[in-house]
Amino acid sequence: MAKETVRASDAPAQLGARPVRRGRLPDPLRSTPALIVLHGVVLILTLLVTAVVAVRSAGPAGNLGERAAGVAVTTSSTASEIYQGLADADVAASAVFLLPPVGDQHEKLRTDYGTAVHTVERQLTDAMGGAVNDPDRLNRLAAIGSRLTVYRGVVCTALATAGGDAAPTGTDSAASPACPAAPPENIVAADDPRSAARAVLASAYAREASHYMSTELLTEAQRLWDDDTRRLLHARADARPWMAASMLVPLALLSALVATQLWLRRRTRRRLNVGLLLASGATVAVLAMLVASWWHWPAADDQFGDLETAIAAQNTSQQHLGDLLAGRADLYLALGASVDPAAHQADFYARGICPDPQVLTSSLDCPAIIEVWTARQSKSQDAFSSAIRTVLRGGSIGQSFEEEKTVRKAALNADGVRADEALAQLPAAPRQLGGAAAWVTLLAGAGVVAGLRQRYLEYQ
Amino acid sequence: MAISSTARALLASVLLATLAGCTPPMATTPAPPARPPGAQTVTPSGEATSICPVRRSLPPSANPPGRILARGDKQKLIAGVDPSDATMSHWNSATQKFEGFNIDLLVEVARALWPEGNPRDRIEFRVVPPGQGSFEMLNRGEIDLIATSLTASCERAKEVLFSNDYLDSGQTVLVRKRDGGPEFAGVEQLGGKRVCAANNTTSLAAIRRYQTAGGQRLVPVATEHSIDCLVMLRQGQVDGVSTDENILHGFAQMAPDTMLVTEPPRPDRQFCTYNLSDDCRWFTDEPHAFAFRLNDREVAAFVNHVLALPSTRQAWLTAHARWLAGHPDAGRDPDTGARTPMIPSPGEPVTSWPPPHPSAAPTG
Questions:
Q1: Is the same domain home to B143 and B184?
Q2: A154 touches chain B (CB under 8 A)
Q3: Out of B34, B83, B125, closest to residue A200 by CB
Q4: Spatial CA neighbour of A295 closest among A234, A236, A247, A237
């Protein structure tokens, strides 16, 4: 049996003679058996933390992979479609009030509105179907749906007030018209003296509807987009601390095991403790398994930056497209019977669609638009009808809006493609070994307990 | 302590629901209602004093205003109008014209200035905000005159020059129709209720200071345009719309589910000097006039001259019959002295009249 060296601190008789120094452990706890127990407790706690980190980091490590990013990009694309659908519906609704509520052209504008509303409703329904397991997203989509109902109600009241002759219908959903049919007593002929007065009230409703679209619906749709992209950012942000913990905690455990081994050897003048050696080996294995689980991190972290940039660009492009559509609605409202054309004009230019009203943008005929603002005020008799012809889809300004929309949509799609490419570059999350690592940690724990127990018993 | 079987069952069901991963039902907040932009409740304020009306302006002058005729080939009259007035001025997309009582009078002014050709071709309309909101555009020189339903008051006369009074009206209230009658019989029943008027108008000032016989104040709601009040009334967001009766007549035409109150205000708040009807419901005095920049005396005097022309008096009667049928304003027949719907004769001057000399007036 090896010679035991009992230190002075282990002798109770000597202990009593020495004053206890402040900041040191009380003497009974400074005995070797007590210190062995203390080391054991610290090691077991560190092992527990390691096991928890190994198990819990598997989620963030997996989320960082392609699957989570893919979901986020898909959902944010849906949010983008809903945003565009709403803006399109607003343009269509504003256009309806450009003309008296009679004639084929007016009927076509109403049908366009019905189609636009049905399109966005279908997008919403599809998105809600895909979000059944995501209460937050479902809530957000439900909020958009309820606001859309309010918006539709205001537009329907406007149409009923204007006294049109038929309810607008969606091209593929005639069974569910965007508005209920107007009651017969509400239908007024174009030459009825009441029709002009009613058109004024109808335009006030249209102005209110457009305001609601800007302040409530589009804002809510933007929040949906923000939520979706925030998930992507959160996936990356959530992963960082878990990745750091997955590396640092096992390293700390290994350091503690080595330190305990050295302390024990120095304290007891014994050979290496086999239990601690086994635990150290198991910890190295745990570290290796966690490194393998996070092997994709550097590449993913790098590619996530590109993906975020692409999504931010997509967001900007969407804002540009939304501004264009909202600006078109401003133009229609100002030219129609709105009571506040000056405010619509100010809103239009505040959106930055025509930074310089006198200069053409890539496609939009900004100089021609200047004439439209004053068409309802001009002394020229045909200025208004001429302006109507130019701003509608077939007219020169309407055409330039369509071209600009195509340009901005192309930019949005290009950003979408860039996001898809960045997504494709994301490495797939490797097989997660966190669960297995937790079992190995248990093995290390057994080694620690066995090794320290042996030394402890020797001291007993 | 023993746990009752009900409590145990409840506990078990909660535990089961938790284990089964049940989540509480989604608490979706209802969508906010749509409201016209800029609508807001304002606080009642002010003393219960009526406005100081202006009924007489500069003496008429047949000299055409040189400032407008100096515009060469592009001679035109630029008029600021409110397009939300079904009776006074509104846009008719079917005829593609501005129409209304004020527009017909403006046509007479243009006809007097340019006897040749179509007088409508000489008028350019600019949409202006209601009330004194339009004064800024006038003083910036963007328009030559304001032809909205503008009340000529002494306070406003410090900022703009008025024409002679061309229509008398008074403020009353439009409410929802219930079972063929008004939801609220009169303004006295609207104490503590939401009553709406446009910003920067004498109508808003009047409802802010109105107090019922019981001492209750109205709850004033301000909007950017009077028509927004009608929208809010129909949406149940206000209980009444209060402005000049000539405007409310148009609103009642637009919305058959609304009607004017039928009961008069209490006697000490009633103002019926210029009201022909037996059941006068006016609680303010609202002389209507065109407004010009303070230094535009030439244009104001010429418009006064036009208003006094026999042809204009005839046009006034035709326009009144077309746009303001049933409006109980009372003129005085110059031959018989009888009270009848007729363009008002210039009334008594008021203390702040005549306006300051042009040299003392701010230039626009």
A1: no
A2: yes
A3: B83
A4: A247
CA–CA gap between residue A312 and residue A45 (Å, rounded): 43
- Which candidate from B33, B37, B124 shows the least CB-CB separation from A379? B124
Model ipTM? 0.84
How far is residue A227's CA from residue A145's CA, in Å, rounded to a whole number? 17
Q: How far apart are CA A382 and CA B235, in angstroms?
A: 36
Strands B145-146 and B77-81: parallel
Same domain, B82 and B118: yes
Residues of B in contact with A150 (CB under 8 A): 31-34
Residues B258, B229: one domain?
yes
A151: which chain B residues are within 8 Å (Cβ-Cβ)? 34
In order along its 460 residues, chain A shows pLDDT tens digits of 344 444 444 433 343 444 445 556 666 677 888 888 888 999 999 999 999 999 888 888 877 665 666 666 667 678 888 888 999 899 999 988 887 777 778 888 888 899 999 999 999 998 888 888 888 888 889 999 999 999 999 999 998 888 754 444 444 433 345 677 666 666 666 566 677 888 889 989 999 999 999 899 998 888 888 877 777 777 778 888 888 999 999 999 999 999 998 988 887 777 788 899 999 999 999 999 999 988 888 888 888 888 888 888 888 888 888 899 999 999 999 988 788 888 899 999 999 888 888 877 778 889 999 988 888 876 566 788 889 889 988 889 999 999 999 999 899 888 888 888 887 777 877 888 888 999 999 999 999 999 888 888 887 6
CB-based contact (8 Å) between A29 and chain B? no
Residue with tokens 């059944």: A132
DSSP state of A217: I
Sign of CA dihedral A386, A391, A395, A396: positive
Residue pair A28/A261 in contact (Cβ under 8 Å)? The answer is no
Q: Taking CA B8 as the corner, what is the angle to CA B2 and CA B11, rounded to the nearest 5 degrees? A: 130
What residues in A contact B37, CB-CB < 8 Å?
Answer: 207-208, 211, 343
- Whether residue B89 sits in one domain with residue B237: no
Residue B82 structural domain: 66-166+287-360
Question: Total structural domains in chain B?
Answer: 2
Last residue of a domain, one of B236, B265, B286: B286
Token pair for residue A293? 């689980």
* Window 213-252 of A, Cβ < 8 Å to B: 216
Assess if residue B60 is contained within a domain: no
Choose the final residue of a domain: B248, B263, B286: B286
Contact list in B for residue A204 (CB cut-off 8 A) is 36, 84, 225, 227-228, 230-231
Nearest to B26 among A139, A190, A200 (CB): A139
- What's the rounded Cα separation, in Å, for the pair B313 and A391? 41
A302 phi, psi to nearest 5 deg:
-65, -50
Optimal mutation site among A133, A151, A200, interface B, most CBs of chain B within 10 A: A200
Pair B173, B158 in one domain: no
**How far does A150 lie from chain B, in Å, by closest CA?**
7
Q: CATH number for the domain including B100?
A: 3.40.190.10
User: Residue B145: helix, strand or coil by DSSP?
Assistant: strand
Q: Which of B77, B91, B223, B323 is the best residue to mutate to test the A interface, defined by the most A CB atoms within 10 Å of its own CB?
A: B91
Residue B1 domain-assigned (yes or no): no
